[in-house]
Amino acid sequence: MRCRLLKKAAVGVFLAVMSLSICSCGTEKEAKSPEATMEAFYQLIVYQDTGAIVKLGIDQKEAQETLDEYQSSMISAIQNQFKNAGISISKSESSDILDVITDSFQKLDYKVSLKKRDGKEASVTVSSQYIHYLDLFQQAADETINELKPKHIENLSDAKKLLIENIKTSFQNAEISKDMHSKTFDLKNKKIKSGKHSVRLFFPEDAEETGSKLMELVSDK
Questions:
Q1: Distances from the Cα of 43 to the Cαs of 20, 112, 128, 186, 197, in angstroms?
Q2: In this predicted structure, what is the pLDDT of residue 8?
Q3: Which residues in the chain land under pLDDT 50?
Q4: Helix axes 156-172 and 91-105, enclosed angle (nearest 10)
Q5: Letter string b/e over residues 165-195, b meaning 16 or more CB atoms within 10 A of that residue's CB
Q6: 211 Cα distance to chain centroid
Q7: Confidence at residue 213, expressed as pLDDT on a 0 to 100 scale
Q8: Counting CB atoms within 10 angstroms of each CB, which of 17, 68, 69, 135 has the fewest?
Q9: What confidence score (pLDDT) does residue 50 get?
Q10: Domain ranges in the chain?
Q11: C-beta neighbour count of 104 within 10 angstroms
Q12: What angle do CA 59, 92, 177 make, to 5 degrees?
């Protein structure tokens, strides 16, 4: 089963919501470095950790609420992909799969480097290790098929449980790449209102594309 979990609509949720906070009012402050911005976005989108984005000046409550919405979208995306394959799974089962995938992504190493900075525009390169995401789903599907007959499993519910467990095991034992893939992101210096304060950040020009590119980077797509 080639399950495309990370759709653009899901991976862009965080950045798209953050974009709504861009404003032209508030206290003027010196912008954080573009590298710091991409570090924070990588950690939130890939690691699902709000720590770095909060350090940039984003309100903790807003960051967590947005992450919760992002995770909810991811869980729905997993359910929909199983549904498209003719299998119905619960939110709880989908959430369990997402947790294991996130744990796998958290093992990846990465680095961020400034490629170009010209006034209020900058280009930043993010390099990261990756896992063979789609291959892991296919591996789990193949293992499930091979196990069904010897175990004489004919009940659909039991077969589904076996598939879910094999997906979890595949990601838990996922081999991390020894090399890194790289992608470059364009950022612009913008003022963002978050909570009671305003911060100036280098922010991606295309929020949805940035989220998608980060996930493509770490999933070897």
A1: 20, 11, 12, 18, 23
A2: 45
A3: 1-9, 20-28
A4: 20
A5: ebbbebbeebeebeeebeeebbbbbbbbbbe
A6: 7
A7: 93
A8: 68
A9: 94
A10: 8-219
A11: 20
A12: 75
Place of tokens 């100036």: 200
**DSSP secondary structure letters along the chain:** -------HHHHTHHHHHHHTTB-S-S---PPPPHHHHHHHHHHHHTT---HHHHHTT--HHHHHHHHHHHHHHHHHHHHHHHHHTT----HHHHHHHHHHHHHHHTT--EEEEEEEEETTEEEEEEEE----HHHHHHHHHHHHHHHHTTTT---HHHHHHHHHHHHHHHHHTPPPPSS-EEEEEEEEEEEEEETTEEEEEEEESSHHHHHHHHHHHHHT-
